[in-house]
């Protein structure tokens, strides 16, 4: 057995057997050789991929195991196909704690949701909807759970990302443990393990040549869109195709202009509300100058800006910090969220409404800023009827946390923000700054600033923003197949980080002119409010997946 970085690579059939047996004694093996065209890939502790790949039967332990649902043990098979449990919280209790160490036999309970009502049995697809940097408390995308699943007679499973929500591999967490266990590598290998166990549990064959083979299609939007594409790119023997919406692949390869994201956010706002770019810059300049030239205390200035002064972080000791983070940073960070949800485009979107407030010359600068927070939401009502913005709603948890963290598009609040910020300090470095042509106060992106911030935030962390790109070589997706990227052309992440053109006959890009951040996945389906462009994109994706599924069927005997 050789190693690829810290990852063991199996190079012959005897090692496959030995490796799988050390990972789980209940594994059985049905392997066949396939030619490989790419360099060695990541390896799941229960699976083997490398110069020679094998089709592997997953652990029988899931078939005989019990799952926990709402604290009560149930036999898994009986309930995985129970339609009454569609959309209910469920658990896979045998997920590996350390996917990269075959000698580590620790397990944890992985939360997921499923939809089985459309499943027509072995021989039909499994859609795996990937979640990302947030709690997964319900099903995500009706377009998949209703539209796709009903069309293809598919089973749908939606696992929560490790460390988010209730999916916690470890009882006690630390920077050292995050460094090893909280990574896209581990998350993808969780996915592969769950996929293979699901196939077995549903009675699917593991051989693509069998009519009972269940092709797996990964789906994700944003960071999960990236994971979806990587799942197919890195594990083509287990993942048959990928649907990746607003997937910022090139962002994570560091192969992007650091200022293109907020330039795009500015362009979209300007298109929806002409004059917004200049109005925003004038407002930020005025607020900055007024506050810095005042004799107010930090708490007085915060109240004038519309903040609940009692929610200010303890490190806000001076007006400069309040302005730099509470004005210069917070406006683009919240505008980033507005941009993602600027669909359907028009005057009712949050960014268009805020732009109209910024352009309203009858309002003072502070009134405009208050209006900005009212559109954002999260206001706290006071006894006197007034309201203020809770700064903690934008603050991540943990020691040495700051409002302006490692993700300048908004780190997020609480524990979720802590976990995401760590990822953005390690494998998912996000290069964003504000250029002179944007609607925001100029701020240069700096790797040095980010490394210093992350070192203070997470003492002992390992700084290597190019690790994933160096190990996976995904910047051009060379050798990839059966991946469809969808891009909303009003979405800063898709336009500046995804692929906007076909890379090959089987790595395709669909651009949605009036779409925003994974608008094609949508909050409901069918949706009368969807634009023609989004509806057409959804149909295109269905047609592409159907073609690829038919190609698999054509090779079955």
UniProtKB/TrEMBL annotation:
Molecular function per GO: dipeptidyl-peptidase activity; serine-type exopeptidase activity
Pfam families noted in UniProt: Peptidase_S28 (PF05577)
Coiled coil: none
Transmembrane segments: 41-62
Record SUPFAM superfamilies: alpha/beta-Hydrolases (SSF53474)
Keywords of the record: Glycoprotein, Hydrolase, Membrane, Protease, Signal, Transmembrane, Transmembrane helix
Gene Ontology BP, a term: proteolysis
Keyword Protease: yes
EC number: 3.4.14.2
Family statement: Belongs to the peptidase S28 family.
UniProt protein name: Dipeptidyl-peptidase II
Organism: Fistulifera solaris
Lineage per the UniProt record: Eukaryota, Sar, Stramenopiles, Ochrophyta, Bacillariophyta
